[in-house]
Amino acid sequence: MSWWDPTIAVAGLLVGLVVGLTGMGGGALMTPVLVFFFGVSPLAAVSSDVVASFFMKPIGGLVHLRRGTVHLRMVGWLCLGSVPGAFSGVLILRLIGRGADVQRIVLISLGGILVLASIAMATKAYLTLRERERRRAHEDAPEPQPALASVPVRRLATVLVGAGGGLAVGMTSVGAGSLMIVCLLLLYPSIRVAQLVGTDLVQAVPLVAAASVGHIVFGDFTVGITGSILVGAIPGVWAGARFSSRSPGSLVRRALAVIMFASGAKLLGASAGQVLVLTLAALVLGLAVWAAVRIRHGEAPFVWQERHRQSRRAAVESVTPTGG
Fold first, then answer.
1. How do the domains of the chain map onto residue ranges?
2. Which class for 51: exposed (0-12), middle (13-18), buried (19 or more C-beta within 10 A)?
3. CB neighbours of 77 closer than 8 A, spacing ≥ 6?
């Protein structure tokens, strides 16, 4: 392969748009796309995608650093686990070998992580819903929000979260923005979601750097695949980020969760018919369950209804006299 492939670049552009719109989905989309649509071996897909991610991760991290939504001490403890974890993930693949065995293990690991990541995305959405409900309950007497830097770090648990996430990224390229963020949400319920996302993005830079070094040295890194991904993904991320405030990001994230679930099931050996049934079940049952959960937590069944409700409430408040 030359230093770039136009078709892979187009796929990178589309994946980059999703990443820019939602802030997630890079490895979870790009690696299965390379395996399913371009016939790239699982290990080469993981290696090339990890190295490509190293050039894209710092963008979101710098934005959050400038906004002050990063817990730097937590970043340090996460990296204490994630950096050696990521490198160890690559070494484990290396110790297994380079033949069919390692390709099969990467395939199964990637499928399992994708299914877990789709469940983690649903969990994150639920935790965010609970956070919004809690904020509404304290609108009249808001809870004091502690300064981010003053929140104590649960050191051992945080190191273990970093190690587990790093191991997953090193072996599959997936996990930094999905599995780890849910663990952090459970560990630090007093910290806002945006702050944990920023913290996770910054720690992902050294994590992916360690995984990249490992895959360049021990993996199946291919310059042509990585260059092709970057040619499309970098402008895609930029364009997606520019339009993220005006796009239905929540809808894209839900679709992404379903795609990840279906891709994971396929990688785990499900037939095309089984994948179709599972996807339809996830769409229909997932939509119904999520609507019921939203109602239970005080919101309209669908996002567009909630936005309509909020706009009507704002219109009423704007014409209601405040004086007596």
1. 6-270, 272-317
2. buried
3. 153, 155, 158, 159, 162
